[in-house]
Protein 1
Amino acid sequence: MQVTCGIDWAEDHHDVAVVDSDARLLGKLRVTDDASGFQDLLHLLAEHGDTPDDPIPIAIETSRGLMVACLRASGRRVFAINPMAVARYRDRHTVSRKKSDHQDAVVLANILRTDAELHRPLPGDSELVKAIAVLARAQQDAVWDRTRAHNRLRSHLREYYPAVLEAFADKRERLLAREARAILAIAPTQAEAAKLARSKVRAAVTQAGRQRRIEAETDRLLKVLRQSRLRQPALVETAMGHQTLALLAQLEAACKACDDLASVTEELFLQHPDAEIITSFPGLAVLTGARLLAEIGDDRTRFDTARDLKAYAGSAPVTRESGKSRRVSHRRIKNSRLAATGRHWAFAALTASSGAHDHYNRRRETGDRYYAALRNLFNRMLGQLHHCLITRQKFDEAIAYRPPQPSPLDATA
């Protein structure tokens, strides 16, 4: 008799339901989100045939949390079902749109009873990959936080202090440059910038890490900062200067978090056996490779074919067809973190691989726009990566971008 379990999770408790192959409710329970609650859950499962050799599959609406981690550690197959899918399954059992936690647990158990083959269990990744995923995602979040903090500071400075924006307009990092942050720390307003001593500017530039052309850079900054410009009223400018210092502190914290997390992520990633294969690809640095591994994992049974991996990453197109209408477009439902990493990888590969650059140019010549061509390049490289990880071999440019061989018919013609 097939038995399935559904768990409707909450912050401090979880509703559990166990059903059999005929949709009969065998047992239900509300457990707390702690060790005793987990033991109660195991006892309920054991009462209905759960054994180490034949564990009961479990459906839940999240892939994170202590309960999920403990269930996965115990060797059980856990299915993370999208809440939107659960809402549609709920309509199969009732048309009144009533909802309760117990009812949702029953719905989750019935999803596995009827459509288990249409859903993927959580992958059996190693502990090392799970740790890399935590750090890589945290580092990526820190980068996004840093970008938001930079944009907020830049928007604020435009309202009263355009001189500092002009001073670092030619820098690739703009306000993220250490020199820019050092100058803002000692002169958060136009009034203070106009009174800066040359020695103080030189010291700030030196402490920011510059080692060459220090005197020339000091003269350039003083010239820009001392120019006559439009000003806010004195009291308003002072108040805005205090706000700048607060925004600058947030930016400094975000920059430090990015650097610290990047360091530990790279160190942990290099310990993984797949790191050597992943970094052999053009355009994949250590940090980008860590983000990639964090999202695809090291459970090689998770994606049976490269096509499955491409769909998960959102690089493979999707077809919408109805009657005489047929439309092929890019995927909107995807792993957004993996898709963002793929854009960086494809862009970096343009200059690191002649084969990748030629493939990109061919796509542009056929009419693809910039992002469509990059996405197509990422799609191809992702298939190559899947093959190399399965066969345990490094990237080879000559094989990956081998020119098409002429057919025998062409030769006889």
Protein 2
Amino acid sequence: MGKTYFKNAHVFTGVNESFEALDFLVDDQAGTFVEVGSDVTVAEDVEVVDLAGKYVMPGMINAHTHIILDPLFKIGGLSSVNGNQSEPVVDTYIAVDNLKKLLKNGVTYIRDVGSTYDIDLKLGKLEREGKIVAPGIIGSGAALMMTGGHGAELGREVDGPDETRKAARELLKKGARNIKMMATGGVSIDGEQPTDVQLSVEEMKAAVDEAHHKGRTACAHAQGTQGIKNAIIAGVDSIEHAIYLDDEAIEMLKEHGTFVVPTLVAPWAINQHTDLLPEFMVKKSLEVQEAHFKSIGCAAKAGVKIAMGTDAGTPFNDFEGLNAFELDLMVQAGLTPLQALQATTVNAAELLKIASEAGTIAADKLADFLILERNPLEDIKAVGEEKIVYKKGKQVL
């Protein structure tokens, strides 16, 4: 028919602070919202869907994924545990499968922050051209780290501002829409600590300058306090993980307008499988969980901008139900349900620089939305329950 009219829904647009009685009209061909409101104009020949008793929200945005990783070790691809040699066909197969899982579970846009063989960049281009059905992808390509630094299996080792600048320029030339850097060590790699400082302010700033010059973003894996502060000073758009925040770091985040992407579910997933993972990883993960929750709760209470990300692909951190569970953990850490919904919609869209097309339910935006059975502002767990997913106006089967 060309257009579909959805009526009688309770709608969280991403801008309002509660679910309101709103109707909306979708252009099925363009995949966009045509009109949203209480008095939508409807022609007689449009298809009508009655959503009485249902709750509608924008599709979730996951701002921290690694789609080429195999979190359950079933396919034999790359992971931070098995150390397998990466292989492009296998990595691509895993990535496509993970994208399907994300979409089916309500994630309609992602930012991938560390890929092999530029797979995220190439799949992102195919999605934008309409050649594959998948979440929208803001790709980073290879992450940048110091020689011997965190996540070398996912990225490119660089030393000094000149090398970092050169690597960032090459990534941007390939189509990267974000530059990912490693400011600290982490949990999943042996021989380092989350508090270890790795890339310097000067090294990170060189890459940030290049990204911003092209209108793109830059982010930093930063878990320890000093590394977090270094990354903020360097000008990154978001701090990933932010495990050890102190009062000064929180004030710096607010002053610079820097987002935090918590990924609370990453250590949580490790801590549920302590008998299956290396001792070094489990020990560090158990040590950081309490501080992590405290830091994110304090940041949210202070008014730091929070965007949702899961670090999907790390051990037992899947691409399915844990997307919604991250929102649950955010609320457990101290965010309100409204803050959690904003983190995965309007806030994440702002961080990814896709607010003109995604993150809210409004005219001319992509018709990416979820139909829920219950109100997640009353119980955030509702997002993780049975749902209907629409991507660009079409129901995901």
Protein 3
Amino acid sequence: MSMDAENTKPVTRIQREKHELILEAALDVFSQYGFRGSTIDQIADAAGMSKPNLLYYFKSKEDIHAPLLARILDTWLEPLRALDQNGDPLPELQSYIRRKLEMSRDFPRESRLFANEMLRGAPGFSDVLHTDLKDLVDEKARVIEKWMAQGRIARCDARHLIFSIWATTQHYADFDIQVRAVLGKERGGETRFEDAARFLDQLFLHGLTPKK
């Protein structure tokens, strides 16, 4: 349990700052080494703190990991929440794809931490995956299916469409080293995300455009 959950006293500004410092350091460590490969000592070093000082704020590695996961899941789901059933389907899906790709560009550590959690069986996410995440995907799948029934986009499996968007956009964060190595110096810079956005527009939007 973290300091915030244990203490009933008001949290001071300095305590909040230390709390955020530790979480930021932990994000670096967990995203590089995974949960099992990370240690409290590594996180303390990354935060520029002693181990006893860190343990004043968080009692264990698990207590640091849990709030990071909660933040990441909330951030990761925001673009899907924003998919508007009243919007124009193709622009709505294009916006969703672009926002997911932007998140891979801007939050690569969070993406890798999320992927690592899935690979280890998602013990920190298990309940949420079967409730909040599933409920949201089901809700947005119904929106996509409604668009299909109206003839506004081509028919496909809505849930696998969402999975495919996750896979193709998050690839650019989770496998960034591979992407940059294969693209080389000329194409492996920041323009790789612009190139990816154009390709994913072509891949998804062309495939979803109703045939006349």
Protein 4
Amino acid sequence: MLSPQDQLTELVRTLESQQHVFATDPLLITEKLQNEDGTPIQKLHRRATRIDSNGALARVLGKIDGRIKGIMLIMSIVWCLSGFLGLFTLLQANVVNFFYVLVCLLGFHTIMLVGWLVLTLMNQGKQTPSWFASFVSPNRLIRGKDDVTQAAVNLYERQLEHSGMRWYLGKFSHQLWLATLTGMLLAIIFLLIVRQYSFSWESTLLSDQALITLTQVLGWLPSMVGFSVPDNEAIIQSRLVTDALPLSIARQWSGLLIGSLLMYGIVPRAIAWAFCALMFRRKKMRLDIKLPYYQKIINFWQRKVVDADDFKQAPAPVAPKAQVSAGKKLVALLEYPYDDERWWQAGLNTVNDKANDEIEDFGILDDRDDMARLIAYLDMHPVQVLLGIHSHALPDRGTLRKLDSIASHAKQGLIVQLLGGTTDDIQSQARFGQWQTALSAREIGLVSSE
């Protein structure tokens, strides 16, 4: 489902399209948020919270969410009690057929778990089953004819139809199975504490050796985590038993029973539950800010209003002067080569060999491999980067993305030196102004090459 903040934001959108009268005027809140900082999502969340200043919308959403979770909790408790009582009824006799009890415990559960796994691998059930959506429909959980309640109900119903809800359904199904198996485990432990059982087995077709092999295979996994497993002699003595067995043998069988329930029932079901929870988080519904409603608000926030009567020409952006650090430098050319191999000496004022030893020449940054190699180097070495940019280079989006990436990984900062071009060349002047604007917006210092 949507997060609580996304739900509130979407509910405001629905109600505003229905001309609902809110506690606070949406237009006033939207205008006040225009000059506030934050990402579009953060500002939309802030807007919805301020519009719902009395908390009425949040209370309705919280009531529906609380009742859905309450029903799921009650069902889990009921399933746990059913597992406890079912096993309590099954273990009334003092002499228990071990394999019969084990099949009753894990037979149907294993079939259902394998079936779920097969359907998942076949990528079936992409949509939420209709019976689940109708079962937990908010219409059944909350009564109210006002527009807020109806809009909230419709919002939850739209979420239940989302494709990611199949994982929520799987998570809930595994939760009920875990509750049932936990109830069975509690019943077994309780009965083994207060009563003394003898375990037997009987078979028309299987020999003693076959049952010994079967028991050893069954007990391999529980024995890995410390549960006892009956030895060959105990298995043979337990055939067709009608009276009490030695206590040591009974304890071996009880250990195998508890271990099998844990390792073949609870643990696989818990893994399946965790997988569904992870997939539900990955496929979780997100707020669609591309909707015209949200785009209109975002565009309004990004719009700059200018009064024509007192309009003043804004000065051209100028990149800040570069602050050259005293430590080691890494120099590189962006995309274009340059005739002077020591192009960086004039900007860094390094003319002696000792200073040059503190400079690492990385060469030309051209493709993705060069960028990946540079980023890996910067993550390992705290250096200041001097990037040489030729007058032919355009400050387009791809080039600026490279610039931003280098700036974010350079621990001692990034500075830029513009190369080539003449002051008489109109094209070079225009290109120089474009780079000044780009560097100024990013607060990246410009090195003087004079």
